[in-house]
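User: Second chain of the day. Same drill as before.
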Amino acid sequence: MIIVKRNQTLHFHNKIYRCAFGLKGLTNNKTEGDKMTPIGTFNIGNLYVRTDKIKNLKANLKINSINKNMAWCDNPKSKHYNKLITTSKPHAESLYRNDNIYDIILVIQYNVNPIIPYKGSAIFIHNSKKDYQATNGCIALETSDLSEIIKKLKPSDKITITN
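Assistant: Same format as last time:
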């Protein structure tokens, strides 16, 4: 079980990691674009990796390679809302980025069954920016910490984000 706490720490396997989350904090009432991280217990979803940049990542999860056409739909009016999409056009939530924050993406299964429009999308655990800058709602970790966690993570593990 991964536990994320309000003091910007992530607890996993008796170790505490520094992390970042949504710019406006944690919420029980997540909405699209609110820059908040949803509170609750969620399943772990797919693992996506820029395998052209991250080599030899050890994982108990299947590693899905990120390519230039991959994006996450954040349009609440789309039938593909909160799902992985393939597009040849530039996209606000492209998974293939020039910075490093999406080099490793672990999907948090938030707003998935059922998917409710405007309830929030693209909630991931991913690489942090310098100095653990706040995210738009995701959980962000230093690359080495994220790699260490993924090495030990099992598909049956869950994440709890708590006040």
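The mean pLDDT is 97.

User: Great, on to the next one.
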